[in-house]
Amino acid sequence: MSPPVAPAGWSRWLVPPAALSVHLSIGQAYAWSVFKPPLESALGLSGTQSALPFQLAIVMLGLSAAFGGTLVERRGPRWAMTVALICFSSGFLISALGAASEQYWLIVLGYGFVGGIGLGIGYISPVSTLIKWFPDRPGMATGIAIMGFGGGALIASPWSAQMLESFGTDSSGIALAFLVHGLSYAVFMLLGVLLVRVPRGTGQGAAAPGGGGAPAVAGRAGAVEGVQVSARSAVRTPQFWCLWVILCMNVTAGIGILEKAAPMITDFFADSSTPVSATAAAGFVALLSAANMAGRIGWSSTSDLIGRKNVYRVYLGVGALMYALIALLGDTSKPLFVGCALVILSFYGGGFATIPAYLKDLFGSHQVGAVHGRLLTAWSTAGVLGPLIVNWIADRQEEAGKHGSALYSLSFFIMIGLLAIGFVANELVRPVHPRHHLPVPGKDADVRQRQQPESA
Amino acid sequence: MSDSDSSQSPPDRRGLIAFAWLWVGAPLAYGLYELVQRATQLFTG
């Protein structure tokens, strides 16, 4: 499959919905918890067992994004979206078979392994293409797509719950729900496969024969300008590892709140005159999801105006300040606690959405999708680190007889430390050394010509 | 490029753009509606 080059008159505003159709679908992964209680009762599973498909899916997301990135760059976004569609939908269909036959290993294999590959390839599939279409606003463009990943759970959570209510929560009801999910997501993602195009003049577009003539609808869209670094060279630079630390620290800090949001707000105000009910705590979790999503599009668009380094200074510096406020004064005022948590979650989303544009600034758009894929291992690490810190410390504090906000104070100070490490890593980011740059064809030929002896 | 090629204006894609954004916007609006319903519980619950 050759990369689909945009025909004449193709609008770049068709590319974000193509990306969204994939990201809104694969974002379903965060709504897996809807299936957990029915699976536990229908198949007699423990909570740990029912979490297994999701955990394997997230591991596969990281691995397939890291190892499949170069292939995605070479084959183009349509190939990647097709692979994502096939894997993600097949994952549900295999799971449907597993639920119908009450073979849980099939659900783990289907949703976790096969579907997880779809998550990773789907996540990185539009990133490079969006950056090439929107060289003037890369933060906004990738922010739209990555916002979709957050939005996917918002759609899937009530939709899946309603479906299970209609079909029943026994094994055949779950199987039917998986089947409908697989087929619906296949149709929904098909829009992305059909609509996505690479702008003319990019590495991908140039390689495609008979690509037609897409005019410069986006001004300089498609022009590969400035410093270009291959994915293989990028991982050997200190800049890549600085960004890895930045992303890992920022995500860990966000997960620190997200992981235990409902019990946290309940514990913080348990001894106050107005304790937080379970319903209100659920509302708080929903509000955090909204902040996470708004941060993805809002902050990454802001980064186009104030610069990537500055926006990460805000995420990490102001984020640490917000954590300090919660740790020191959070239990004195509910609006203060909620406000600080919302800001932290908006930074969490913003950190995810801004990183592709930061990569583009440092390594160019040549293989930005592949570099981004490799960087997502920071997400997998943070996914383990964040919950581990908060849960382990809260359990130890509880054993020590503490309660209320005291359960979380130590983890909040650790989060401040992690954000400070991220802040320092951000300050250490410098332009990539020229020895890592790809040779510029014209300039290279010019140098070679000048190096030829006069007599030749 | 011949004269006949350059005189052809590119097809109008506004309908396709509207359809594509509606395709992704409608389910997202549903998700946001459900989210707002739950989020208000923080103040009412």
From TrEMBL, chain A:
MF terms in GO: transmembrane transporter activity
**Gene3D superfamilies xrefs:** MFS general substrate transporter like domains
Which InterPro entries does this entry report, sorted A to Z? MFS, MFS_dom, MFS_trans_sf, Proton-linked_MCT
Q: Any stretches that span the bilayer, and where are they?
A: 12-32, 52-72, 79-98, 104-127, 139-161, 173-196, 240-258, 278-299, 311-330, 336-359, 371-394, 406-425
Pfam families from the xrefs?
Answer: MFS_1
Where is the protein found, in the record's own terms? Cell membrane
Source organism, top-level taxon: Bacteria
Occurrences of domain Major facilitator superfamily (MFS) profile (ranges): 1-429
**Keywords in alphabetical order:** Membrane, Transmembrane, Transmembrane helix
Membrane topology listed for this record: Multi-pass membrane protein
User: Which CDD domains would you find in this protein's record?
Assistant: MFS_OFA_like
Q: Which GO terms describe its cellular component?
A: plasma membrane
The UniProt entry, under PANTHER family, shows: MAJOR FACILITATOR SUPERFAMILY (MFS) PROFILE DOMAIN-CONTAINING PROTEIN-RELATED, MONOCARBOXYLATE TRANSPORTER
Protein's name in the database = OFA family MFS transporter
Species of provenance: Streptomyces adustus
